Amino acid sequence: MIFKLLTISSLCLLAIAYPSGAPEGSCDLRIPGHMVEPQTSPAPFKVEAVSLGGGKYKITIKSTDSNDFKGFLLAVVDSAGKYIGNFGSSTNSKTLTCPKGNALTHIDNVGKKKVEIEWTKPASATGSIDLMATIVRDYSTFWTNAKTTITLA
């Protein structure tokens, strides 16, 4: 009986761990659905953007300590809360089509120290925007508060 319960519990955890990226249903709240609460401490990660010119930016998510992260969900959000811009193609991430616009997520649960992606702003976008990231270290350890505000060039 205990073996059956452990097997069923393990299968349930595997089914909701999302090793190939966040599901589209997690777009709005940017919470991974791991059935545990997010960390309340400051995220040990940096989310940065550097202008490449021509409305393009290099966005980097990187660990600020010695630990890897296994997953992430990134959205670029304007002052109205809408997800804006377009992410370029990458070998270690994929875009999600969300009701508010597109977002970016991981494609595997291999440990990462850093992820870089190109992002293009809408031609009409000006002012400040927020880079909003949920970053998953492991199944029960994740942060939803990794935020950086930048002013578009």
TrEMBL record:
Q: Record the organism.
A: Tetranychus urticae
Reelin domain location: 4-153
Q: Which family does it belong to?
A: Belongs to the insect defense protein family.
Q: What is this protein called?
A: Reelin domain-containing protein
Primary location: secreted
Is tRNA processing among this UniProt entry's keywords? no
Q: Does the keyword Cell division apply?
A: no
Which GO biological process categories is it annotated with?
defense response to bacterium; innate immune response
Its domain of life reads Eukaryota
Q: Which InterPro entries match?
A: Ferric-chelate_Red/DefProt (IPR051237), Reeler_dom (IPR002861), Reeler_sf (IPR042307)
What's in the keyword line of the UniProt record? Antibiotic, Antimicrobial, Immunity, Innate immunity, Secreted, Signal
One GO cellular-component annotation of the UniProt record comes to: extracellular region
Q: Where in the cell is it found?
A: Secreted
- Signal peptide interval: 1-17
